[in-house]
Design goal:
Strand content: 15-25%
Shape: globular
Strand order of the largest sheet: 11-9-10-7-6-15
Number of strands: 40
Distance between the termini: 26 Å
Bound molecules: zinc ion
Number of helices: 31
Radius of gyration: 39 Å
Largest sheet: 6 strands, mixed
Length: about 1000
């Protein structure tokens, strides 16, 4: 006996029961053991930042990873299943700062770096446990407990090794540059962190005059949106070839920017170059010691402002570069927290963005302000804390990209990207990438192992062993390879023998993740070390091993990785960089990227907007299967609009499969049917009807299509194929075979069982819970020696389907669909039998005339030309008018008289003219008494004239329908027999008594004396 299914699954109960079963039976371990000798499939997990619980965004990526790992496992592949956590960097630090109420770096230092580091680790510990629990609930199968944590000493050592290699090649340098800077976090922000962090902002817009020293009474006028940079002004730039004019009040600006103003004097920009002017804040700051002058610059834009550009090399990247060319002074007005240095008078100690109003007021008081207002523009903010960035000169550590750019592009060309355009995005990024700024002035991160000595020698430590060797004392106090402990270790300079301190900077967090294909796979590690990855801060959080180099050889590069599109410039990038630097090869063969997640109305999800959905809430309200379905139904090239609305839609959709399984179970139990596992291998054999054979072929086709989709990493195609299959199964096969199920037909039951089970298997990677549950009900519980899990059953048989048969039935389904349309257009009840159907252009369906007649309730199905329509052809005057001129009248007359000859391809010959399809307007109208539907070269016409006989038959169908409803309402079993009394007004239907009896399981049919139908159970 099959266990009956409830009308609707309760997803929470079902999913938790499946999880419990997997845990109890060790299903995942069994699967791994089963595949241990299989071909390898190497997936490398991109680490998730361990500072939160599972969000629906993260669950998307985790689902895709799980889907393809499950699929590959079903195909027998041996896999590693190592999950990763990203554990250092600003995300974590900013969270802890908030938790502790710390607002600046000074407060962190006062709090104590050791305790701060422990707090950061605690966040990782808590979050990694939460992420693990959420991922398990989602159904993700990973080697939980053996995860990699990027803050392990092992991971850090691998990065050191990479940095030492880079240094040996001469790619490492310390740069003095203007960079984007977060004043709150007190650190520079690198180019890859910057992309995508531009937001719309309202900022001040001001026009300011700088009095010209050489031309009393005259001034040059600039425009800026960053008033705080004015105290750092050292020059203004003009376009040498543009025209500049002097207004009556003495102000100079570009003619093109002045509207219809009248000028006293107009000169070329070049003529202004060299003029000296008074700086706007010379009185209060170091600007007073600088000679300000007008310089020429070809890049000056005449599209905005005044055509005169304020230059502050200490506050802007371009300004800084220009300053080098022009030998300009560099004034850096603000410190790392974005506050003015003490020498800036009344500005001292105030924040860069906070002084705008006072600067404007001050300029106004001194008569220097020409105009002020606001401007809306795109401005970068810190991607971690959302503080608007400033530009600042700082000394950072860089890796030069000149030598690696082309090798990286070359390596990227070996990678297969899905969607394809993402590979192009990566190439664009590589073409434009600037030197990699790897240093951050922070605390909880990779300690950069750089020991620059006063003698000029730079030591870059490549391993803990090397550190021990060069250290001035023992490393006993070195709890972790991390600040603050590492800051106490001094080394002896190999150049001069002096003691040297490490720089205090930590590394870009993308170094941590980028090294993973090396650090987790044991690259160049001579011997496998059990739990060798559980070092430093990772101790106690994981039991991950450090494999040996042979293992790395086997698993590198990854066959497949998958993350969001933004990772192109982040993890995909840093991995590629480090891998090309160390091995000259790409670290992955195939990449699946995907776009962003928005809410179901298309808005970004934000905690403060109330439209954020936690994974926990989603598990509760829609269940993991429905979430996974929602993720997988999404083309990866488009944003996913995630929500409960689409979730309900999917729940409804999934009921079709559920109901078909439930229908099967009902009739299989009545018939005492026991399935045979061998049917899954070869398909059911024996006395199959053409419809059964079609269902077998249709199942094979579905398996084929779903397999192709998984192989292309396109879950959306897998789901499309699966949905079309379920539609064919329930709306054609089951529907057309009902009577056979009532009769307990063995071939029908075998066929449906096989189709259902193979359907589950094909969709199981996407929808593991329902698939597993139904597998239990349909297979494990009823078949001796069946695999205990759908995931231990391998992939469905890949036999080729019978294509001709599929094409025939596809034509039948199309014909029926058109027949239904025609019927709907005629407004006749579907139960009303009709005399005749004529089908044209669907000859493949001819052998199935009986099925079609039955399905559409027509007496006769004819294949041949449909003459139920009248052809009406009119000239297309817009085309023919100009072409035929006076001939048009003749043509028109011929068409009206119906004198035309139809030619191939929609052409006509009329009155001696050959007219193409564009020359005429063709209309086919229905003849009286027919209902017609047509599409793509196929036409179906229904004869809708109804005589008394047909009318009576229609009433018989109505009665059968009513009786069967009554049977259900009165709770009769499907097999119960009845005595039936028809309503007195239906006495004339007794001539069809046998028919009615057969359709309602009636043992007798009579007529009652009332106007109601009565049934009695025997
Ligand atoms: Zn910040
Ligand atoms: Zn030295």
């Amino acid at each position: 006996m099959f266990a009956p299914l409830p009308g609707k699954p309760d997803h929470d109960t079902l999913e938790l029961a499946v999880l419990e079963r997997w845990a109890r039976e060790g299903t995942f371990d069994q699967l791994r053991a089963k595949n241990a000798d299989g071909p390898r499939f190497s997936f490398i997990d991109g680490p998730v930042t361990a500072n939160k619980s599972l969000a629906v965004h993260t669950a998307w990526g985790r689902t895709l990873k799980d889907v393809f790992q499950r699929y590959k496992a079903l195909r027998g592949h041996h896999q590693r299943y190592q999950n990763g956590f990203d554990c250092q960097g600003l995300w974590i630090e900013v969270g802890v700062e908030r938790e502790l109420g710390l607002n600046s770096k000074r407060e962190i230092e006062e709090y104590g770096l050791a305790e701060f580091a422990r707090r950061c680790r605690a966040v990782v510990e808590r979050s990694s446990a939460e992420l693990t629990a959420g991922s398990i609930r989602l159904g993700q199968w990973m080697d939980w407990g053996r995860d990699y944590f990027t803050f392990s000493d092992t991971n850090i050592e691998y990065i050191w090794r990479f940095l030492a290699t880079i240094h040996e090649r001469g790619w490492l340098f310390r740069g003095h540059r203007a960079t984007e800077w977060c004043p709150r976090c007190g650190t520079s922000i690198s180019a890859h962190e910057l992309a995508g962090s531009y937001v719309d902002r309202e900022d001040p817009s001001l026009t300011v005059r700088f009095p010209l020293l050489d031309r009393p009474g005259q001034a040059i006028v600039i425009w800026t949106t960053t008033p705080w940079t004015l105290p750092a002004n050292v020059a203004v730039a003009v376009a040498p070839t543009a025209e500049y004019g002097r207004l009556r009040n003495g102000d100079w600006l570009a003619v093109e920017r002045a509207g219809d103003a009248t000028f006293e004097e107009v000169v070329r920009g070049a003529d202004l170059v060299g003029l000296r002017y008074e700086g706007p804040f010379d009185a209060i700051g170091p600007g007073g010691g600088v000679e300000h002058r007008v310089i020429g610059w070809d890049e000056v834009s005449l599209d905005e402002g005044t055509g005169v550009v304020h230059i502050a090399p200490g506050c802007g990247t371009e300004d800084f570069e220009l300053g080098k060319l022009e030998d300009l002074a560099v004034l850096t007005p603000v410190d790392e927290s974005g506050r003015f240095y003490p020498e800036y008078g009344w500005l001292a100690g105030r924040g860069a963005h906070a002084v705008a109003e006072d600067v404007i007021a001050d300029l106004h008081d001194r008569g220097l302000l020409v105009a002020s207002g606001t401007v809306s523009h795109r401005y970068p903010e810190c991607w971690r804390c959302h503080t608007p960035l400033i530009f600042r000169i700082s000394d950072d550590w860089f890796i030069s990209v000149d030598d690696i750019r082309e090798p990286m592009r070359e390596a990227n060309r070996t990678v297969e990207w899905t969607p394809e355009y993402m590979g192009k995005r990566m190439d664009d990024w590589l073409v434009n990438m600037s030197d990699w700024n790897i240093s951050r002035r922070r605390y909880y991160g990779l300690p950069l192992p750089f020991y620059p000595c006063g003698c000029g020698h730079l030591t870059v430590i490549g391993s803990r062993a090397q550190l021990a060797e060069l250290a001035t004392g023992p490393l006993d106090g070195l709890e972790e390879l991390r600040r603050p402990w590492i800051d106490d270790v001094l080394i002896r300079c190999p150049g001069c023998g002096e003691d040297v301190k490490r720089i205090t900077e930590v590394g870009d967090v993308w170094l941590d993740a980028g090294i993973v294909p090396f650090s987790t796979l044991g690259w160049e590690n001579p011997e496998w070390i059990d739990e060798g990855y559980a070092t430093g801060a990772a101790k106690g959080l994981t039991t991950a091993d450090l494999p040996d180099h042979a293992t790395w050889e086997q698993w590198f590069p990854a066959d497949w990785v998958s993350e969001m599109r933004e990772q192109i410039r982040l993890w995909f990038y840093s991995q590629l960089f480090m891998s090309v630097a160390l091995t000259g090869r790409a670290p992955y063969r195939k990449v699946l990227g995907y776009e962003k997640m928005l809410d179901e109305t298309g808005r970004e999800m934000h905690g403060s907007w109330g439209n954020m959905i936690s994974a926990e809430e989603a598990f509760e309200r829609m269940g993991a299967d429905v979430m996974r379905w929602q993720y997988c139904a999404q083309p990866p090239s488009q944003n996913l609009l995630f929500g409960f609305g689409p979730g309900q839609e999917i729940q409804r959709k999934l009921l079709t499969l559920w109901n078909s399984a439930s229908f099967f179970i009902q009739y299989a139990n009545i018939a005492g049917f026991t399935p045979d596992l061998a049917d899954l291998a070869d398909g059911p054999t024996g006395d199959l009807t053409p419809l059964d054979r079609w269902m077998v072929a249709r199942t094979r086709r579905m398996v084929q299509e779903v397999t192709d989709a998984y192989e292309q990493y396109l879950t959306v195609n897998a789901l499309r194929a699966f949905e079309a299959f379920v539609d064919d199964l329930s709306n054609w096969y089951v529907r057309r075979s009902r009577r056979r199920f009532w009769d307990g037909d063995e071939a029908a039951l075998r066929t449906l069982w096989t189709a259902l089970v193979d359907g589950l298997r094909a969709v199981s990677p996407i929808m593991p819970f329902r698939a597993e549950h139904l597998w239990q009900v349909l297979v494990t519980d009823v078949v001796a020696d069946a695999p205990s899990s759908v995931f231990l059953a391998g992939w469905p048989s890949m036999s080729a389907p019978d294509d001709d048969l599929l094409a025939d039935v596809a034509a039948v389904r199309r014909l029926v669909e058109l027949g239904r349309q025609a019927r709907a257009a005629s407004k006749l009840r579907t139960r009303q039998p009709l005399r005749r159907l004529v089908a044209e252009g669907l000859d493949r369906a001819a052998p199935y005339a009986g099925e079609i007649a039955d399905e559409l309730r027509v007496k006769q199905v004819v294949f041949g030309p449909v003459e139920a329509t009248e052809l009406r052809v009119r000239p297309n005057l817009r085309v023919l008018g100009p072409r035929l001129g006076a001939e048009l009248g003749k043509l028109r007359a011929a068409l009206e008289a119906g004198e035309l000859e139809e030619l191939e391809g929609g052409a006509f010959r009329v009155a001696g003219h050959d007219l193409g399809p564009d020359d005429v307007l063709v209309e086919r109208t229905q003849k009286e008494g027919w209902a017609v539907a047509a599409s793509d070269g196929a036409t179906v016409a229904l004869d809708i004239e109804i005589d008394d006989d047909l009318h009576r038959q229609g009433r018989v169908y109505d009665v059968i329908h009513q009786v069967n409803n009554l049977r259900k309402e009165t709770g009769l079993e499907l097999t119960d027999r009845i005595d039936l009394l028809l309503a007195s007004s239906d006495a004339d239907l007794l001539e069809h008594a046998d028919w009615i009896a057969a359709e309602t399981l009636a043992l007798s049919v009579g007529v009652s004396d009332t106007d109601e139908i009565r049934i009695t159970r025997r």
